[in-house]
């Protein structure tokens, strides 16, 4: 492979210039067309012609257009094309597509947000931002230099990182997308979004996630777990920010530990405590000011979790990585729990 590959994909993108704004191409081996559709959250029995899919999508308001996938086969690989979509870039989808083989996705949007990811046997192996290919992640991240040789990623000079990303995909998969590929009459399908993984890949065996409450929430993330999620989050915030010795925080935590909401009067006391930290931060400089500002946000988020049962973060960034991991997993579990609430009883 050489620069001819990059020039090939420049011609492909220039021939369908709308794809330079937003595109996701997913390559998958070890799966057939229906299997790829299922990996994306679609129903193979609901496929339709490309024209019919376009007609269906035009029925929706712009902000309500559902995800959609076009599918083609090139050699032994299934190719998923998302015009102005991104589902294939999600690790949850890519790992499903690679469950019986390999899968790679190349994605970008109109804001130049982008990702190139590769998975094998249901596990992500590497990924990188195409504007910064040296900044990679994943267990195989150090082993891809040969695939990057002579590819002009980034934004300088004559670089065309979009074409380079597709050329990189060709080097890994051996599949060259024909110049007229974007115009192929491929079958398509509307997608239901694949749920986010409750526990990110690589975090499954972390000791801090073996806590009994976290394991119960992961096992059944339903509406009845929302109070426990919020109470656990409140405790994590108090621990990380060093608030456990504050009387109002301690009393609120004791109530939450018993499964009760704190008495309403404590909200005013905690709000005053948050204001106190913010005011003190304005009288300080350097790290002390930043630390007090952080504690002010911590108390504010603690109030949201303790009284309003908020289960996702506000302005408080955790300092302890283990506590952050617990908070992140609980927040992921809260989404299906909230969906359970929207569905209502008996659904």
Could you describe the 3D structure shown?
The chain is an alpha+beta fold. The protein is 44% helix and 13% strand. The chain contains 12 helices and 8 strands. It has an 8-stranded antiparallel beta sheet with strand order 7-6-5-4-1-3-2-8, sandwiched between helices. Helix 1 (3-15) crosses helix 6 (161-173), helix 2 (33-39) packs antiparallel against helix 4 (91-97) and helix 8 runs antiparallel to helix 11 (286-308). The longest helix is centred in the C-terminal third of the chain and has 23 residues, at 286-308. The termini are far apart. Residues 341-347 have low confidence and may be disordered.
In short, what is this structure?
This protein has 347 residues and is of the alpha+beta class. The protein contains twelve helices and eight strands.
| Distance between the amino and carboxyl termini | 54 Å
Mean pLDDT: 92
Radius of gyration: 24 Å
Helicity level:
40-55%
Note the main sheet: 8 strands, antiparallel
- What structural class results from the helix and strand content? alpha+beta
Q: How many alpha or pi helices?
A: 12
- Order of secondary-structure elements: HEHHEEHEEEEHHEHHHHHH
Question: Widest sheet: strand order?
Answer: 7-6-5-4-1-3-2-8
Structural domains: how many:
2
Number of strands: 8
Q: So what's the overall shape?
A: elongated
Low confidence ranges: 341-347
Secondary structure layout plus pairing:
Elements: H1 3-15, E1 23-29, H2 33-39, H3 50-57, E2 68-74, E3 77-83, H4 91-97, E4 102-108, E5 114-120, E6 123-128, E7 136-137, H5 145-148, H6 161-173, E8 188-190, H7 212-219, H8 226-241, H9 247-257, H10 265-282, H11 286-308, H12 321-343
Antiparallel strand pairs: 1-3, 1-4, 2-3, 2-8, 4-5, 5-6, 6-7
């Amino acid at each position: 492979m050489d620069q001819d590959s990059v020039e090939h994909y420049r011609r492909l993108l220039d021939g369908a210039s709308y794809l330079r704004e937003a595109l996701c191409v997913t390559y998958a081996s070890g799966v057939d067309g229906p299997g790829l559709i299922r990996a994306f959250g679609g129903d193979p029995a609901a496929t339709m012609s490309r024209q019919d899919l376009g007609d269906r999508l035009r029925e929706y308001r712009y902000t309500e257009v559902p995800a959609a996938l076009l599918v083609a086969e090139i050699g032994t690989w299934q190719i998923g094309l998302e015009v102005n979509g991104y589902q294939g870039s999600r690790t949850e989808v890519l790992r499903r597509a690679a469950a019986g083989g390999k899968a790679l996705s190349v994605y970008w949007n109109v804001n130049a947000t982008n990702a190139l990811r590769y998975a094998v046997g249901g596990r992500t192996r590497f990924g990188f931002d195409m504007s910064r290919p040296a900044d990679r992640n994943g267990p195989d991240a150090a082993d891809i230099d040969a695939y990057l040789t002579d590819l002009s990623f980034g934004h300088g000079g004559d670089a065309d990182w979009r074409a380079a990303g597709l050329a990189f995909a060709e080097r890994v998969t051996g599949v060259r997308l024909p110049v007229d590929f974007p115009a192929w009459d491929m079958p398509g399908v509307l997608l239901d979004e694949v749920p986010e993984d409750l526990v990110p890949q690589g975090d499954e065996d972390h000791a801090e996630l073996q806590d009994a409450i976290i394991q119960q929430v992961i096992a059944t993330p339903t509406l009845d777990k929302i109070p426990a999620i919020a109470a656990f989050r409140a405790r994590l915030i108090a621990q990380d920010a060093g608030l456990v010795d504050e009387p109002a925080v301690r009393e609120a935590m004791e109530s939450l530990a018993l499964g009760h909401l704190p008495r309403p009067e404590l909200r005013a006391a905690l709000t005053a405590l948050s204001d106190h930290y913010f005011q003190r931060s304005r009288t300080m400089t350097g790290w002390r000011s930043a630390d007090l500002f952080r504690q002010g946000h911590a108390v504010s988020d603690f109030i949201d979790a303790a009284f309003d049962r908020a289960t996702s973060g506000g302005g408080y960034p955790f300092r302890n990585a283990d506590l952050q991991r617990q908070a992140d997993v609980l927040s992921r579990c809260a989404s299906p729990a909230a969906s359970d609430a929207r569905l209502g009883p008996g659904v």
